[in-house]
Amino acid sequence: MLTLELALAGLGIGSIAGLSGLGLLVTYRLTGVFNLAFGAIAMGVAYLLWQEVRIWHWPLALAALFDLVVVCPAFGVLIERLVFRPLQRRVATPAERLVASLGVLIVLLGAATLTWGAQARLDAPSLVPYRQLRLPGGAKLPLGTVVGLAVITVVVLGLAIGRRTSLGLQVRAVVERRELAQLQGLDANRVAALGWALGSTLAGVAGVLMAPTLRLQPFGFTLVMLETMAVVVVARLTSPVRAVVGGLFVGVAQAELTRVHLQGHARALLEAVTSNLFVVALLAAVLVVRRLDEAGGTDAGTTARLATRGELPPVRGWWMLAALALAAPLLFGAPDRRAALAVPALAIVLVSIVVVSGYSGQISLGQAGFAGLGALVAARLAAGTLPGLPRIPGVAVLVVAPLLVVPVGVLMGWPAIRRRGLFLAITTFALSVAMSRFVFEQPAATSGVLVHPPDAFGSDNNFYVLELLCLAVAFAIVRNLHHGRLGRALIAVRDDEAGALACGVDVRRLKLFVFAASSALAALGGALLAMGTRAFDPVAFDPIRGLIWFAAVVVFGIDSAPGAVIGAGLLIALDTSLPSGTSTLVIGCAALLLGRLPGGLLHSAHRLLERLLRRPAPSGPPPTPSRAIRLTSAGRAVARSIHRPPAAGGSAP
Amino acid sequence: MTAGLDVVHVRAGYGAVEALHDVTLRFPLGSVVALLGRNGAGKSSLLRVVAGTLDVGSGRVTWRGRDITRLPPHQRAAAGLTVVPDDPNVFLDLSVAENLALFGHGAPPEPVYAAFPELAGKGGQRAGTLSGGERQMLALGRLLLRPGAALLLDEVSRGLSAGAVERLYRVLDDLATPDRTIVVVEQYQPNILRRADLIYVLSRGELAWAGEPSELTTGALPAALV
Amino acid sequence: MSPALEARGVSKSYDGVLIVDHVDLVAEVGRITVIIGPNGAGKTTLFNCLSGVEPADAGAVWHRGDEVTGWSSDALARRGLARTFQRSSVFPTLSVADNLRIAAENHRRRGILRGLAGLPDPGGRRAVVVVGAVLADLGLTDVAEVRAGVLPSGTLRLVELGRALCGEPDTLLLDEPASGLDDTETEEFHQLLHRLAARDLAVVMVEHDLALVHEAADVVYVMVSGSVAASGPPGEVLGRIDVRSLLFGRTA
């Protein structure tokens, strides 16, 4: 069945995927950061080369040399200096670093969309001239493939040799524990800058080599590059050789599958699988590869450090602001109100992220998938075209559709029981990509789908009121998840999972439940989002969109429900009033600033207000009650530390 | 006793929280100094100020008369200031031998294995698989390869059995020479009280007590300690 | 009557290194069983295997006569086998009272959907009563509303112990509960231990402080290099020359 010709053709894509994955892996090994921005850097460099060659008419060789030797390393050094070094200084958690790399990704996406627009370019310059090399035996191999394989070989050999050298040892030390490395006399900043420069150069090389085989388009190109994460997961973030072999294998398999011909539905399915084989591989890898967590670091922990950690009491002011933002559209004119319809819907989606990531500490990058699924299921339920189910009339759709999405949420929550931090993030993202590619983009699933609000809520005003009601229900659920017994248990899981287990908290069941509740909320929000625009648009539920939503939630306070509403309002306002890409850029920049705004924008604003008003910060131990209580020595020590005695003994000699 | 490490009127902290309030401490060359205090007293913050991993708000740090307040950490290490932080103080992903090579700049590791036979034969083992006590031995033992002129150790005895603590301190005894400053940070550890020339007690970010071990009898322990 | 906790042939290794090597252990109700041994002897790993934090490679564990080998730690906690950790696992963002309340509320499984719907918790009142009693017992009442993250380590040890007690356990595993305590606190802790044992609790603990062991222990297990080198009443075991040399390296 296998043919040599197809295998060699597949090597072309395979080598670039292998190189891309290798670059991601090398960046991780050199910097300790799983650089989600990798795909966006590749996209940015590919665009830059296009601009230089097609618009400014630079010679190709000069432009490529400039981009790969000057721009890429400089960009790597720049983000190390401005983004990751401040995080390192305060020993940020992996979750914080993940968000920072997400910030870089989003900034680049926003900047590229603003500069080059969202339309696809098909004329990316090809660095390697198209020439076929004849192999002994008559088979042909494109020159590009040879170049790709050569670059891979150089990188893999370099890694293998470099690991044991003194510099390699230094790099490993800095990656593992930067502060300790500094204490041993290593200039950690220089080592880290070197790692970032190398990592972004590899991203650039992958992007420039990949561009001619793809459409150049900000979201699409970045997503394709991100799909090559599959080979990194297969390699469990450690083995470069496995990553390369994985890339080559998927590339060849993709080529060989084109020979298989089927009929009918099976044919469409096979075509979808073939053209999205990296997605399939990613999905299979995250679900099948065992012992991923150990590779991703043990405490690749939760989002606890992103949260406000209860330092300040919750503010009622944010609720007022959120309520005001929500009430305003009722006074708007028709076109503005139409745009505002998206606000409560998006707010519900963002609240679903607050639930799963803010309260229970699980990073979920896949909420766009649930939202899209909710929209699609609701539309088909309302039309009676969901196989096996009757037509559901009116508002009932908004109850049934989220419930139907819950099993999918549980399915996604299943790996979450075992996975943590980084690999949980990748797993959820992979599922969202799979949903987008195999459902939202399949004509069989989406063609002929008509979306409209429930009958009684046809007018914009009425529909808006319906949305507000849904939002109120969502908030009621969220409130019960954040307070009382459930809320305490969730915080316990977020703060210290081992401790929660020791208390008898059934962490597994709780996590599954939170994923289920969160997916239902996202589905509700997605359904409303589609009803508001009266169309199902796969672009609205793009996996990359999900990344932006997650970043927005983190920016506005990952455990702040009113923050989600304000964030949704701001995103929609920016999108409707300014050129597309602006809101993305704003969220990205804010995510990058998170290192300086712990707890998110609202919490930081709150702290600033506290300081300006000079109210005593309630973060210290509160005063002891006046009742007389028998104290143990520990209790007395605390009491003493509260009523501080005059400094005993002498001063400095 | 000549000018060694001096911390003069230092204020430092994390964000809005100040951890050290105008602290002045002198660690002369040739002395063993015990820095005691409860959790959160500012001991670790002081070590981080000396190491250069925590920025000083005001005040200065001098080493043998040279102002090092703005010197980056790796240059301080090169100037002979060796800080062994609180756990984890070894690289868990590197092997025992690699940990020693990284610190010793290729010096032969035998002295470490001689002082701590538990580590001998474990050179190829990942430090992450060592027990807590063995890690402490590795962290302290590697100092033997390239001992700096100032050794600052953060709670090296934590979680160790009495016998192990005694052996760690014997290694320190050998390192205490007239041209070296040794600073041992502990919560409370009778072992160090016998050995120290000078004792500082920190409490809530301030110096609460300073004096010699003879003045520090159990009956008159500074309130900040108990 | 079957012992509160019994282990037979428990073994565990990491990266091919045998950390716990066929350990047998019996903990009786009303007794304080202490495990001592030099660092790296595998005491904490043994605890992890006993309490379900990590699965043992071999061997079996019985809790009150029922085999519980391979049970997860939360299921064991709900069965009445509670533990504390060497390094604090207190929830820093919650108040002391809420820390305890979590244990009191979760030692029986209760409906999640009920909580989601905002219905009152049927066992909620009892949980509050238990928490109040334990707070008073440990002298933590006046710091009940303090956020745990700002408390000194000595107090956190008590909070952790209190959390274990709020699950109303019959077996307590304490990993170095006295580390970080000063002399007075240690003394008080020691009295507390006896009060606990008198309440028909089985206490198993890892401890370094030999004075405390002498004073408090009913049974001592000496662990060296992953296996039990000696066990028995403290006066007998700790007096043995070979045990002393194992513990102190040289004869001290």
SSE map:
The complex is a heterotrimer of chains A (653), B (226) and C (252).
Chain A: H1 4-31, H2 38-55, H3 60-89, H4 94-116, E1 132-134, E2 140-142, H5 143-164, H6 166-176, H7 178-183, H8 188-210, H9 218-227, H10 229-234, H11 240-257, H12 264-275, H13 277-288, H14 292-295, H15 316-327, H16 334-340, H17 342-359, H18 367-383, H19 397-418, H20 421-440, H21 443-446, H22 460-482, H23 484-495, H24 497-502, H25 507-533, H26 543-555, H27 561-577, H28 582-592, H29 601-613, H30 633-642
Helix pairs in contact in A: 1-5, 1-8, 1-11, 2-3, 2-4, 2-8, 2-9, 3-4, 3-8, 4-26, 4-28, 6-8, 12-13, 13-20, 15-27, 17-22, 17-25, 17-26, 17-27, 18-19, 18-20, 18-25, 19-20, 19-25, 22-25, 26-28, 27-28
Chain B: E1 5-14, E2 17-27, E3 32-36, H1 43-51, E4 56-63, E5 66-67, H2 73-78, E6 81-84, H3 96-104, H4 110-115, H5 132-141, E7 150-154, H6 162-175, E8 181-186, H7 190-195, E9 198-203, E10 206-211
Parallel strand pairs in B: 3-8, 3-9, 6-7, 7-8
Antiparallel strand pairs in B: 1-2, 1-4, 4-5, 9-10
Chain C: E1 5-14, E2 17-27, E3 32-36, H1 43-50, E4 58-63, E5 66-67, H2 73-79, E6 81-83, H3 96-106, H4 112-116, H5 124-138, H6 153-166, E7 171-175, H7 183-198, E8 202-206, H8 210-216, E9 219-224, E10 227-232, H9 234-239, H10 241-248
Parallel strand pairs in C: 3-8, 3-9, 6-7, 7-8
Antiparallel strand pairs in C: 1-2, 1-4, 4-5, 9-10
Helix pairs in contact in C: 3-5, 3-6, 5-6
Major β-sheet of chain B, in short? 6 strands, mixed
Q: Helix coverage percent of residues of chain C? A: 25-40%
Percentage of residues assigned to helices of chain B: 25-40%
As an assembly, this protein is heterotrimer
Q: How many domains is the backbone of chain C divided into?
A: 2
Task: Name the shape of chain B in a single word.
Answer: globular
Which H/E pattern describes the elements of chain B? EEEHEEHEHHHEHEHEE
Low-pLDDT segments, ≥5 res of chain B? none
| CATH C-level class of chain B | Alpha Beta
Cα-to-Cα separation, first versus last residue of chain B: 31 Å
Looking across the biggest beta sheet of chain B, what order are the strands in? 6-7-8-3-9-10
Q: Report the radius of gyration of chain B as a whole number of Å.
A: 17 Å
Q: Structural class, judged by helices and strands of chain B?
A: alpha/beta
* CATH C-level of the largest domain in chain C: Alpha Beta
Report the radius of gyration of chain C as a whole number of Å: 18 Å
* Count of β-strands of chain B: 10
Superfamily (CATH H level) name of chain B: P-loop containing nucleotide triphosphate hydrolases
